[in-house]
Design goal:
The chain is an alpha/beta fold and 368 residues long. The chain has eleven helices and twelve strands. The strands form two sheets. Strands 3-2-1-4-5-6 form a six-stranded parallel sheet. Bound molecules: nicotinamide-adenine-dinucleotide.
Length: 368
């Protein structure tokens, strides 16, 4: 049997420094008998030499289109827009199964090239849970952005540009420094605290020095009584990390903020869930997604103090590219080890079946 192969392509999306394979997971695959090709990539948080050191074969940046079509290409984010046919097998997030803008055009490239897409968002375990997701570091980075926004607000300033951190301790140290050495005394409430993002948010608050009693952790039982919740108005930072599936009462709204008046402690809301345009958004106090260069949007609270702002960045893990990649890639590893038997391995057969269904829909739309 020929040796199994994977080809890690470069990322072309702006600001994207994460990688689907890390030097650690590449080594595990090589130890299991794989050949791993890695495109040189200045944008990636990991140096090319880190891959070389564990036995990967380095190839030119963006050279995957000329790889033999039998070689599966793995990447993280969408390919740059193009109409070129795609003859290879691709493992990546393609964001084209939920009828996102341009979805049928993306899939039509596979139709014309005869390639296959295994979308990372739809690799599920036997219980229907994603085998790999970026949640933990989204919550971790979101809580950090919230703490930074609080520190800026306390100085009468607005939080400026956020840039990816080299590693987690650089982020933790920076947040602590801007809070005057520690987050002690800050009070936070995390809703969805038992989920991936929620656990990450709680972890950041612990690491920057909040007292355990000052990190309120809520999940389904605590919100069952139905909002709006006074408890949210009584903390400095509220982080929403729920997985929204249906209409629920608002957690906070303009009326509850106005009613709190001068008694309000709440200064920053971090909406990690980012259901910004969802009609069921339980935080209907803002309506845009914020960005790394403008991380907060103010909430109109009239003359009331303190000011209140919302962080609603929808790609938070990018702030911690190293750790986020390590966690995602190691969660993906058991499935990648099964990739050579993808004709029969459940996680891959289900993903391929979904691809075929979406491909048929796209072909009809595109008239192919
Ligand atoms: N902003 C970003 O960069 C970013 C990145 C990754 C994920 N996300 C989003 O974050 C959300 C959470 O993702 P996750 O992977 O942590 O999900 P998850 O399923 O691991 O956790 C969600 C948690 O929310 C809880 N929950 C659901 N409804 C609730 C309610 N009404 N009240 C209280 N708790 C409730 C669940 O019990 C669960 O513990 C998703 O919407 C996801 O798309 C955002």
């Amino acid at each position: 049997m020929p040796k199994p192969v994977l080809w890690l392509r470069c990322e072309k999306k702006e600001f994207e420094r994460r990688a689907a394979l890390t030097p650690t997971t590449s080594k595990a695959l090589i130890d299991a008998g794989f050949d791993i090709f890695v495109e040189r990539d200045q944008q990636r948080i990991f140096d090319d030499s880190e891959y070389e050191a564990v036995g990967c074969k380095l190839v030119d940046n963006n050279s995957w289109p000329s790889a033999p079509t039998s070689v599966p290409i793995i990447g993280l984010k969408e390919l740059p827009e193009s109409t070129d046919p795609l003859p290879h097998t691709h493992i990546q997030f393609a964001h084209c199964y939920k009828k996102q803008g341009g979805w049928s055009k993306v899939l039509s490239r596979f139709h014309r090239g005869g390639g296959t897409l295994y979308d990372l968002e739809f690799l599920n375990d036997a219980n229907g849970r994603r085998v790999a997701a970026f949640g933990f570091h989204a919550g971790f980075a979101g809580a950090a952005a919230g703490a930074l926004a609080l520190a800026a607000q306390r100085k009468g300033e607005t939080l400026g540009l956020l840039t990816p951190y080299e590693n987690e301790s650089a982020m933790v140290n920076h947040v602590k420094e801007l809070l005057g050495g520690s987050g002690k005394g800050v009070k936070a409430l995390v809703i969805g605290a038992l989920g991936r993002c929620g656990r990450g948010a709680v972890d950041l608050f612990r690491k920057i020095g909040l007292d355990e009693d000052n990190i309120l952790k809520w999940d389904l039982p605590e919100t069952e009584k139905g909002g709006p919740f006074q408890e949210i108005l009584d903390v400095d930072i509220f982080v929403n990390c729920i997985y929204l599936t249906s209409k629920i009462p608002s957690f906070i709204n303009h009326e509850s903020i106005a009613a709190a008046g001068k008694q309000r402690r709440l200064s920053v809301v971090v909406d990690v869930s980012c259901d910004t345009t969802n009609p069921f958004n339980p935080i209907p106090i803002y309506n845009i997604n914020t960005t790394f260069d403008k991380p907060t949007v103010p909430v109109d609270v009239g003359e009331a103090k303190p000011p209140l702002s919302v962080v609603s960045i929808d790609h938070l893990p990018t702030l911690l590219p190293r750790e986020a990649s390590e966690q995602f890639s190691s969660d993906l590893l058991p499935s990648l080890l099964e990739f050579p038997t993808r004709a029969t391995a459940r996680v891959w057969t289900e993903a391929e079946q979904l691809f075929r269904e979406k491909l048929t829909e796209a072909a009809a739309v595109e008239g192919l």
